[in-house]
Amino acid sequence: MRILLIEDERPIALVVKRGLEEARFRVDVAHDGETGLQMARSDEYSVILLDLMLPQRDGWSVCQALRDERNAVPILMLTARDALDDRVRGLETGADDYLPKPFEFPELLARVRALLRRDKVHKGRVIRVGDLEVDTVAATVRRGGEEIPLTRRESTLLEALAINEGRVLSREVIQERVWMDEESYSNTVDVHVGALRRKIDAGRDEKLIHTVHGLGYTLRRPDGGGGR
Ligand code: CA
Predict the structure, then answer these.
(1) Cα(8) to centroid of ligand 1, in Å?
(2) pTM of the model as a whole
């Protein structure tokens, strides 16, 4: 597994590179956006870690350029803490996830693994996230082996969240792409997420559905661990 890290702050780049190499990834580093974009176009990377403030070309522009070229490589953006606008803009330009700086390395590793797992596992019929199993063909859901009955709408919503494991889905995206329903308003999305949560997460130690304040919802394991 090869990872491209586009980061101009060399001390951060070094720490991240070392950590990822210890986790047995191969890592290439670019210190500016233009070089990073050229390297990303080689299609050799499983994940790209992308800083926002970069010389020559900023992270948004790199992300936008790749998506315009229909390059679907998973992108994790490294944003400033509490900069909500940065995150929204990042997700709008096609980033898969973001991580606010400063971050702890295990958190970064967890996000990288979640992105890789999503890419690999979710092309199959059964999506597994922790002890949750979503069978997209039989339309059944199990947690810890126990079948959980869902309404059709809950089931569609859960499938969308699971397919996009680790990626934040905004209320608008859920409304438009998941339900294709002009009648449903944002608060209806909240109501359905609430109902789904009661069935999937209530009474369990490991919560899977998370609210990302001001952005939307995501389904992910808290530790993000497991295979890669
Ligand atoms: Ca920077």
Answers:
(1) 5
(2) 0.60
